[in-house]
Amino acid sequence: MQTYRPASIIFLHGNVADSDKNARSDQPLAERAVSHRSWILLEEARQRTRRRRPLKREEELAGRTESPNRHRMNAAVRAVVRMGIYVGAKVYFVHEGYQGMVDGGDNIKEATWESVSSMLQMGGTVIGSARCKDFRMHEGRLKAAHNLVQRGITNLCVIGGDGSLTGANLFRKEWSDLLAELVQQGLIDEEASQKYSALHIVGMVGSIDNDFCGTDMTIGTDSALHRIIEVVDAIMTTAQSHQRTFVLEVMGRHCGYLALVSALACGADWVLIPEMPPEDGWEEKMCQKLSATRSRGSRLNIIIVAEGATDRHGKAITSSIVKDLVVQRLGFDTRVTILGHVQRGGTPSAFDRILASRMGVEAVLALLETTANTPACVVSLCGNQSVRLPLMECVQMTQQVQKAMDEKRFEEAVRLRGRCICYILFVTCSVSNFNVAVLNVGAPAAGMNAAVRSAVRVGISEGHKMFAVSDGFEGFYKGQIKEIKWADVGGWTGQGGSLLGTKRTLPAKHIDKIAEQMRKYNINALLVIGGFEAFLGIMELLAARGTFEELCVPMVMVPATVSNNVPGSDLSIGADTALNAITFTCDRIKQSASGTKHRVFIIETMGGYCGYLASVGGLAAGADAAYIFEEPFDIRELQSNVEHLTEKMKTSIQRGLVLRNENSNENYTTDFIYQLYSEEGKGVFDCRKNVLGHMQQGGAPSPFDRNFGTKIAAKAMQWISKKLNESYRKGRVFANTEDSACLLGMRRRALVFQPVVQLRDETDFVHRIPKEQWWLKLRPLMKILAKYKTSYDISDSGQLEHVVLNGPKESEAMAAI
């Protein structure tokens, strides 16, 4: 029997003219469009031949969140409710998930704009979640159908895992038969049966396990990783003090994502996951690894065990078994920590809030496009791109993973998991004659050290001699270069800042001295990890190749800056940590207004001329406005925002939050905006200002930055190895083509190597930003969710495609543990 996990449901009820009540539910939008209070660039939608249908008074959308694992869903609830209201819909909550849908009554309540306020920072789900046995039975689904028809609900937005989504799809398939049965029993009439003849479903995937095929990340996974890493970082300090071995058991059921990623994020010595059971004799190999780590001077060992880990024969490997093994064979002082439900709770991370908000809006757009013949779909994340996939294709592939594991086809199980279950490199060191230098350039960014550690260890694994350059290009020309060994980067993953040292100095003035140092140390390749200065530095080295032959070597840049202003990459190492710092600070600042009320906060963020932190941080924190350089503003817009906040103070939400990028306008400074708001809001609200400053560059790296840094640096080193082999001839390395100096960046769905020369035309060198910014398309989202009347560009919304098209193009290697 299919198991359905608990659900929280949001219902969106169409609000259109009575004269359109008899329109068919399968008619496209262009034929059924009516006067909505606000619409979403309908003309552009028509031009792109994407036809939408309006929500009708007798029609409703429902969104659901399922099972205890599906927490941190409030941002998705907020986004669906507010986007629904934005397009003219009437919205309902269904409390306690499927049980509420079966029971009806007071479990189904109308949602308002204010009812989803102040919930972004809350964990769990405010509308409740409960397991429902009734919905597994035909009688329960019949009751649910009756409750929906009574309220004219024919659209559901389901947030859950494969069980929840499968249940919703079954409900959709049975819908016509359920209505016929209700007519037969006299509970509804034939007219109602015809009016509500089609049930439309769109799913969002919410699970801390990240076990759903078709999406790179599920809602809640990143927050769970935050909880795990917080605990591991704390445990490592006591383990270091007492020279202990810790065995940590993490959740995930039959999916090893949390275990694998947390192991990489904390630099664990060993990890055990269900998809890749260890070979026979793993006990001896593990003990040898732990002993070797201690012999190199380490005072601790960390072992991560997924709760569903087994050996090749299906025998469970528990944390207690691993502990006893270490104690008996090595005699190490060993402790076990089972993290348990702490992984499900706590404040949602910035990543989860942004992901849930994007998916919630995309789900509403997808529901607006459905017809009676449209298959149920899920909205998901592929790289940095929203996509729509057939629901049952994803469910079937997810079930195939478990089938492959049951049949001991483990490589197939890993492949089906997708690109976010990455292969770990177990390689033997070979000897090569290549020397590779790694350096940090620009301002410090959390995650730089993880990238350096990954690069060093992958480089050594591939046989290279690795050299560390201190203090960027300045240290390079001064000769601050030394060989760096495997053990030298131990424990670097969780440390913020730059342990190598980093400066903004560019190489042009000292290019001759840098060439001399490269000749002295026989440097055959360069890996530069940094921000916009690193990009400029690579271009200057490339330009000097004609003069200095020593510079004719493979060079690759990995973007690492909190500003996220490097051309050629959607994301940079360090930006996620900065976003979390901004988001959690804004949470605290907003909380301070809970008692005083009628207060507006002006927050200044970093970023130079790039408005990424202000815009995306504003979306994650629930800001009312964000002023940035990329979108010029004038006094009229400032006045409009003051009026908006004045109206807001008349509601139950009596506080405001406004973010300003530090270089958004040379005249409208933070002080000016503060003084303007204070004067114009006099008698209605008072104003406070905060400049966050360098706290955005500090702190321990977030799990995302640790793993993004690890993955991208490992991929960069593999590219360097390939280029070294290609360019080695007649006893030396010579690489002078454009494609031998690249930037490795995340572009929508994939990591891409791009020659820096080709990025020149994409760059605004005066303001040190890319000419086109992907995240600008998220700004209308922030305004919509803050109740501004604005247009939303649907040109980047997802298209329905098959799961096979969403799979990884190649396995993405991670650093050897």
What's the overall geometry?
globular
CATH topology type of the largest domain: Rossmann fold
CATH class of the largest domain: Alpha Beta
Work out the count of structural domains. Answer: 4
Q: From the alpha-carbon coordinates, what is the Rg to the nearest angstrom?
A: 28 Å
- Would you identify the CATH architecture of the largest domain? 3-Layer(aba) Sandwich
Count every helix, treating DSSP H or I runs of 4 or more residues as helices: 24
What is the percent of helical residues? 25-40%
Subunit structure: Homo- and heterotetramers.
GO molecular function: 6-phosphofructokinase activity; AMP binding; ATP binding; fructose-6-phosphate binding; identical protein binding; metal ion binding; monosaccharide binding
Biased composition (Basic and acidic residues): 56-69
Region (Disordered): 50-69
What is the topological layout?
Elements: E1 7-14, H1 29-32, H2 42-47, E2 60-66, H3 74-86, E3 89-94, H4 97-103, E4 108-111, H5 138-150, E5 155-160, H6 162-184, H7 190-195, E6 200-205, H8 221-242, E7 245-250, H9 257-266, E8 270-272, H10 282-295, E9 301-306, H11 319-330, E10 334-338, H12 350-369, E11 377-382, E12 385-390, H13 391-406, H14 410-417, E13 435-441, H15 448-461, E14 465-469, H16 472-477, E15 481-483, E16 502-503, H17 511-521, E17 525-530, H18 532-543, E18 555-559, H19 575-596, E19 599-605, H20 612-621, E20 625-627, H21 635-648, E21 655-661, H22 670-680, E22 686-691, H23 703-727, E23 728-729, E24 732-733, E25 741-747, E26 750-755, E27 763-764, E28 769-770, H24 779-785
Parallel strand pairs: 2-5, 5-6, 6-11, 7-9, 7-10, 8-9, 13-14, 13-16, 13-17, 17-18, 18-25, 19-21, 19-22, 20-21
Antiparallel strand pairs: 1-2, 1-3, 3-4, 11-12, 14-15, 23-24, 25-26, 27-28
Helix pairs in contact: 3-12, 4-5, 5-6, 6-13, 8-9, 9-23, 12-20, 13-14, 15-23, 19-20, 20-24
